[in-house]
Design a protein that fits this description.
65% of the residues lie in helices and 0% in strands. It is mostly helical. The chain has one domain. The longest helix is centred in the N-terminal third of the chain and has 34 residues, at 91-124. It is flat and about 60 Å long. It starts with 18 loop residues before the first helix and ends in a 10-residue tail after the last helix.
């Protein structure tokens, strides 16, 4: 593909009046980003099962009296996590894990309020066309479903197991990432120009789409790693227990295909090599962008994937400290945002701005 001069960059097709809508959407995306990072801290501190009821209204406030704290603690003591893992925990220790789960839920409520209030305001002011109104209503519904899915995930750890289902954890993270991506894509459609006419460069767009898909799949297996605590074992790289190939215990579950999802060793092996494969896809994409008008976006994505691989290896080698695990989650979301921007600005001029 030949280089496209900067002067060929196309202006956004939206009127300046829609710019506030875009900045509101970027704010919502940033809040979802923060929500995912808080969720990572909640998982890494094993705080997610500390609140045993779903109370969307009264649950917005933490316990405000000694008796309320005692009642919350008594309810937690009836859970499998306390009985099998945290027997003898002090009230002070319980308050620490309660804080992260309460903050996680509170932040979700705030996202819903900011999104709903912004949607009502811009709708009332006439700042949204019909297509955008429908899209934003769909995102609002999806956000509500995400809250319900979060509680469905928590429920899996309140009956007969001391942890949440890693499948439900992956679904919860996956829906959050989908919301984040859709909000960003909608905002990009309101402010980002197309950098030249890439109508005759479908392979570059396909490459960007493949990179986005690779990041999504790698994040899914990252959720399996988190849910199974698979980052706490085999803390070497690139070898696992002195082997480049999966350890023998990687195929101990019958039927064999379940090992890819339920076996700690194979789940970690899969995640680490999905990450390496994804990094090669993104780096090759960055190289292809070097002689095009999207060179800046390509180089940013290439730099970010290198940082993300470094964060992932460091997280593994240090047995997943909370701060580093949270940074690794944040790095994946930043990489996804950059790849989405790259994919957006290479769209043909003939396509509608929000498709």
């Amino acid at each position: 593909m030949h280089s496209v001069p900067a002067a060929a960059a196309l202006r956004p097709t939206t009127a300046p009046a829609t710019r506030p809508v875009a900045w509101w959407l970027f704010l919502c995306a940033a809040m979802v980003f923060a929500m995912a990072v808080i969720g990572a801290v909640t998982r890494l501190t094993e705080s997610g099962l500390s609140i045993v009821e779903w109370a969307p209204i009264k649950g917005a406030l933490p316990p405000l009296s000694d008796q309320a704290w005692q009642d919350a603690f008594v309810a937690y003591k009836a859970t499998p996590e306390y009985l099998y893992k945290n027997t003898g925990m002090s009230l002070e220790a319980f308050q620490q894990i309660f804080f992260w789960e309460w903050l996680h839920r509170l932040w979700g409520r705030l996202i819903g309020l900011v999104f709903a209030a912004g949607l009502a305001w811009f709708w009332w002011r006439g700042g949204l066309d019909r297509g955008l109104r429908l899209r934003l209503l769909g995102l609002l519904v999806l956000g509500g479903l995400q809250g319900a899915l979060g509680w469905f995930m928590v429920m899996s750890g309140l009956v007969d197991r001391p942890s949440v289902s890693h499948y439900r954890l992956a679904a919860h993270l996956g829906l959050a990432v989908l919301l984040y991506a859709l909000i960003l894509w909608t905002a990009y459609g309101l402010v980002l120009p197309r950098l030249g006419d890439f109508a005759k460069a479908p392979s570059l767009r396909r490459h960007a789409s493949i990179a986005i898909g690779c990041v999504a799949v790698t994040m899914c297996w990252g959720a399996f790693v988190a849910g199974l605590d698979a980052g706490q074992v085999y803390n070497t790289f690139p070898l696992m227990d002195g082997r480049l190939l999966p350890p023998p215990e990687s195929f101990s579950i019958i039927p064999a295909w379940l090992n890819w999802f339920d076996n700690t060793a194979l789940v970690q092996f899969t995640h680490r090599w999905l990450a390496i494969g994804t990094s090669l896809v993104v780096l090759s994409l960055a190289a292809r962008c070097s002689r095009t008008a999207v060179v800046g976006w390509g180089h940013l994505a290439g730099l970010m994937v290198a940082v993300q691989v470094g964060l992932g290896i460091s997280t593994l080698l240090t047995q997943v400290p909370v701060w580093l695990g949270a940074m690794h989650q944040a790095g994946a979301l930043l990489l996804l945002a950059l790849l989405l921007a790259l994919r957006f600005v290479t769209r043909p001029v003939s396509e509608s701005r929000l498709r």
